[in-house]
Amino acid sequence: MSASPPGPEPDPTRRLHAVAPASAARPRTDPERVLRRLEWTVIRRLDGLLQGDYRTLFRAFGLDLADLREYQLHDDVRYIDWNVTARMQIPYVREFHADREVTAWFLVDLSGSVDFGSRTVAKRTLATELVTVLARLLTRHGNRVGALLYSDRVEHVIPARGGRRHVLHLLDRMLRQGRAAPGKPTDLGELLECAQSVIKRRSVVFVVSDFISAPGWPRALALLARRHEIVAARLYDPLEIELPDLGLLVLQDAETGEQLFVDTHDRAFRDRFAAGAARREAQLRAALSEAGVDGIELATDDDLVDALVRFTVLRKRRSQLASGATPTPPGRMPG
């Protein structure tokens, strides 16, 4: 029986993944066991590498104006009070008392495309572990965390609370979150707009997604970033960036079910696939930059500890550069 002729070439900006045999329903995973494993394998290693200093990763947002004083060398220029400076003809900066409590929210994309993983780890698993680790780091220092879980719509809003039991509740919700029904593509704009109405207090907001979405979400992200500090945790699989020579493949849109027959042996096709993926990468980075959003990239073959340490080092260097201080050399861990 002859194969049907190839259809149109896939657009790398879509959720096209190699078709795999249908798997059985995912077994129920014990949240306590998962959290305990992450506490031993990830959080303990982070404590050792960062020496418990998470100040550059999590910042407090409840700031009260305490005083004004003359600008000094290495002060952060963002805190200059220009009205007072104009009157006094000398630069003055604002000093604040910081509320030590941080409220963090996780906007977690659990749509069809995050079920993909070309090796042993799917993007869904990566998202679950990242959120659990960050939530536990925050709550054990007296902070509160909440979450919005998205499939093809916002299915769960978990109010911000503290404590280990709350982290277990959040983890259990993510583990029990079912797959989205096929037919409706991801719309991150819907998730971000819902967050604007739900999150009232200024918070740190982690957007955990592969950012494969219908257009229009960058505007919603920029609006959310006006009030909150946003960290975009972008999930990806190496196969989505560069397609190797795997011969004839049937690719399927993970959310609409549309299938395409392609020949990955064709070098020109693989080059066009890589070029399209590179354009999408550039568009994503531009959108995050325009919104003033920090980003952390996590591949399915990444070590979670290494990724979080890299991100912490980058945030510390950025904070030092903003204040005019000498940045920590890239090879050194923050202490």
Question: Could you explain how this protein is built, in words?
Answer:
With 335 residues, this protein is an alpha/beta fold. 36% of the residues lie in helices and 22% in strands. The protein is built from eight helices and eleven strands. The protein has a six-stranded mixed β-sheet, sandwiched between helices. Helix 6 links the parallel strand 7 and strand 8. Helix 1 crosses helix 3 (123-139) and helix 1 packs across helix 8. The longest helix is centred in the last third of the chain and has 25 residues, at 267-291. The model is unreliable at 1-10, 18-25, 60-64 and 330-335 (pLDDT under 50).
The total strand number stands at 11
> Whole-number radius of gyration?
22 Å
CATH homolog superfamily of the largest domain: von Willebrand factor, type A domain
Q: What CATH first level of the largest domain would be assigned? A: Alpha Beta
Spell out the helices and strands N to C: EHEHEEHEEHHEHEEEHEH
Give me the CATH fold name of the largest domain: Rossmann fold
CA-CA gap between termini: 65 Å
Query: What characteristic shape results from the CA principal axes?
Result: globular
Main sheet: strands, sense, barrel: 6 strands, mixed
Q: Structural class of the secondary structure composition? A: alpha/beta
- Provide the low-confidence segments as ranges: 1-10, 18-25, 60-64, 330-335
Q: How do the strands of the widest beta sheet line up side by side? A: 6-5-4-7-8-11
Number of domains: 2
**Second rung of CATH, namely the architecture of the largest domain:** 3-Layer(aba) Sandwich
Count up the helices: 8
Helix content: 25-40%
Mean pLDDT across every amino acid position: 81
Query: Per DSSP, what share of the residues sits in E-state strands of 2 or more residues?
Result: 15-25%
